[in-house]
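hey so u asked for the seq, here:
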Amino acid sequence: MKYPDLLGQDVARVGVQSTRKYNLLASRMITDVIKTSLGPRGMDKMFIDIQGDVYITKHGGAFLRKVDHAHPAAKAIVDAANSVDNHVGDGTISVAVLIGALCTKAEELLKMGIPPAIISSGYQTASDIALDVLASVAQKASISDRELMMHLVLTCLKGKSISDMTDEKTVAKLVVDAVCTITDFDHNKIEVDDIKIEEKLGNATDIQLIDGIVIDKTIDNYAMPKMIIDAKILLTNEFLEPVRTKIDDEIVITSPEQMSVFVKRESDTVLEKVQKIIDAGVNVVISRRGINSFAQERLARSGIISIKRATENDLWWLEKAAGAKICDDLDNISENDLGYAKKVYEKTVGDDKMVFVDGCKNPKAITILLRANSKKYLEEFHRTIKNAYFVLRNFIENPQIVGGGGSTEAIIAQKVRQSAYMVEGKEQIVIEKFAEALEEIPITLARNVGMDVINTITELRAKHAQFANGNYEWFGIDSSQRKVSEVFSKNVVETLAVKEQIIKTAVETTTSLLNVDDIFMKDEIDNTHCHIDGTVHAHHDGGKSHNHFEQEGIEQRQMHHYY
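ran it, C-alpha cells below
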C-alpha cells in the first residue's frame, strides 16, 4: 500500500538536525552585525531606507528595528533588544552580544553531545546564580545624590554622538536637573513622559532646559504682544469661531437683513466668549480649537496673547507645568482654572518661531530643546537623551548601582565559575560555558577599543581570581586608557536594573531558541490576484496554466489586480 504524503506540496520542513543549527547561526550573525557598536569606542551604524533616507545611529535597538530580518531567530533577538529598551531604556547592544555568546556556547555544547534540555536547564541555573551574585555585589545609594546621577548619565552618554558634538557634562547636568525637577522623591516615582523633548535644527551647543513648556507654534496675530510677564494662562477646548454643525442643518434666509442678523449673531457669540476671558483677567489663551480673526483682534486690543490649535499633548504638559486646568466652559472661569508662568514669549529658534511658557513655579513637566545641524543627528540625540532619562528613572525606582566597563560581568563570571564545581553532571559544563559567555561583554569592549583580546581576558581573570574568598574589586575595561583597571573609583557606574534585565532577557531568548527543534514553512505564493467577478486566487506556476481571459466569440479581457 502506498501511503499519502503527510505534508502538502506547499509546506517545506527544515528538519530536526538543521533547525537548531540555523537558529543559532542566525543569532550569531545578527550579533556580529551590532557588537562593534558596544561601548564608548564603538562604531556608528548607517542605514539607508527604500526612499534613500539616511539614518546614523549607535543605538542597538533603533538599528535592529530599522533592518528587515527574514529569519525568525534574528527577529527573536530584535524583540529581545526592544524588550530591554522598553523596560530599562539601555543595554540593547549588551543583550544582543550576550545572546550571541550564549548561542555560540550552546553550539559547542551540542557538538559535545549534551542535549538541549540540559543546556536550557543549565543556563537557567547559571542565570539564578548570576542574579544572586549581582544582588550581593550591588551597592545602595541615595536617590538625592546628584553627583552620582551625573556619573550615571555620563556613563550612558559616553561615546554617543551628543557627547562628541557638545560638552557632555553640560548635557548631563541638564538631564539631571530635568529629572530632579519632576521627580517625587518622597515616593521614589518619576514619569519620564513629563519631560517634553523638542527638536530644532541649529548649533548643538545651544541645547537648553526650559522650566516650562515650549510650543512649536506662533502667536496668532501680529498685533498681539510678543511677551507677557507674570502670565495668567487659560487652557480651553472652546471654539472662539463660528462652529459648523456635525449634521446636515438648513437655515432658510429670505432677505439680506436676515443674512446680516445671522452673521452678526455669530460674531456676537464669539465676542461674548472673548469678553468673559478678558473679564477673568487672563492674558494668555491657549486653545485646542480655532480662534477667528474677530476674536484675535479683540484679544490683541486687550493685550492678550492667543495660540490656536495647540496639540492635546501640549495642553496636557501645560496643565502639569503651569498648574492650569483645561476649561471647557467659558461661562465659569475660576481662579483655580488658570495657570501661571513668569513669562510667555515668542522666540525665533533656527528658521522657525516658537512660544516659550517659561519660569513656571514648581513645574511637574518641563522641556528640553535639542539642537543639531541635521535631522539624523536630532533623532540620535533624542534617543540618547531618552536613554539617559530611563537610566535615572531606574536608579530612582531602585537606587542600587554596579560597576561598568564589563567589570560586573567579569565578577559574575568568576563567581558562577566557582559555583559550577558544586553542580554534578553535565550541567557543570553548561554553567562554565555560561560564565564564558558573560565574559564576551568585556571582551567585546576590549576589542572595540583596540586592546589585545587574549591578553585582556587573561589579565581580567587573574585580577578577579585574587578575590576568590568572597571579596571583589571592580576590575573592567578602561576605554579611555585602553587597559584593565578598577573602574568604580573612576565613576564608571551603571544601574542594577539594567544588568538584571540583560541577563534575564538573554537567557529567556536563548532557551526559547534552543527549545525549537523543527520548522515548517508554507511556500510563498506569487501572482495573487483578483478577477473582476471578485474571485481571489494565486498560481504556483506564475499563472501559465490559467486562462485569464474568457473566449466568447470575441476575447473579453478580465481585469487583474496584483497585490
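The domain at 11-140+402-514 is CATH 1.10.560.10 (GROEL; domain 1). The radius of gyration is 31 Å.
lmk if thats what u needed
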